[in-house]
Amino acid sequence: MRRLRHPNVLLLMGVVTAAGSLSIVTEFIHRGSLFKLLHRPQPEAIKAALVEHRRRIRFCIDVAKGMHYLHTCIPIIVHSDLKSPYLLVDKDWTVKVCDFGMSRIKYRAYLQKSNPELETAGGTPEWMSPEALRNDNVDELSDVYSFGIILWELITLNYPWHELNDPVQIVGKVAFLHHRPKIPSWVETEMEDLLSDCWSRESCDRP
Known about the structure:
36% of the residues lie in helices and 10% in strands. The chain is an alpha+beta fold and 207 residues long. 30% of the residues are buried. Mean pLDDT is 92; it is low at 114-120.
């Protein structure tokens, strides 16, 4: 995090290394997470602001810019746990990518699994790519799948896979039956195509 500098990535300010007080200090982000804004009760003024289509498109662009920055670092940084709870919204409605606890630096074609810590898939099933759910090889295109889920979330204002009660069902449907969230009929063709591309079964077919 120390070397990351981008308006759509959370800025590290410093660290506390005293025994018993290990912590990181970041910039303060006024509005909290995108997840909270979308899925928790909000004042009427906030709800009205979130309904505005152009603002939500700007959110999508902010996320894409932040992730593009990470994916064009040398070496590439793969977030590995991209989801709306890890997107923060500041007082000017700018979105910043945060929480790099599962992020990995990619030196080869795929993230290495030689570390036992990486043998078990982590993350939240609602946003995870099929290959991550299967604990297969993953790379930055797994983040693109997760971005597609966030895009759907912002379009519909719904929680991903809200109709399913059990995370195991999500794993089965996404990883093995190749299901994807239902795209509403009123979504514009260009946006529908983008969602479908982000959710491509083969990661190499994603944007």
